[in-house]
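User: Winged helix-turn-helix transcriptional regulator, Pseudaquabacterium terrae:
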Amino acid sequence: MSRSSSSALSHGPRGCTNLKLRQLSRAVTRHYDAYVAQTGLKNTQYSLLSHVVLLGPIKPSALAARMRLDASTLTRNLQPLITLGWLEQGPGADARSRLVSATPAGRAKRAEGQRAWKQAQLALNERLGVEQVIALHALLDDCLARLDALAEEEA
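Assistant: Predicted structure for Winged helix-turn-helix transcriptional regulator:
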């Protein structure tokens, strides 16, 4: 353990966790944007398109839950992809439900985006070190699980 790590453990965390996570998130987003933007997609669009390709046809409410988005954010993010012809909304199991699915053009755009995303991931792994990225993923997964469990207890 480094001296700064042992010092942090004895004195507690310094600074705002939310701020640090947002700073990291913005830096990582800029990194991925530099690669994914070459395909004409934004990171948010690539993520949404990927979720629909992998999970669809899917109800918007289920998609929002899987992506950890609120319904209004999902609706706002779906609209441009529907307009571009990459996603479509069709009827669901009953008259009140809808299903979101990827069109053939959407599947092709997702494949293009996936190639760019893969290059971004490999470059990030190289920049940070694979061990660091693995440790970061494990820490993030653990934190999300703990926060989800807490939210379930409070509900």
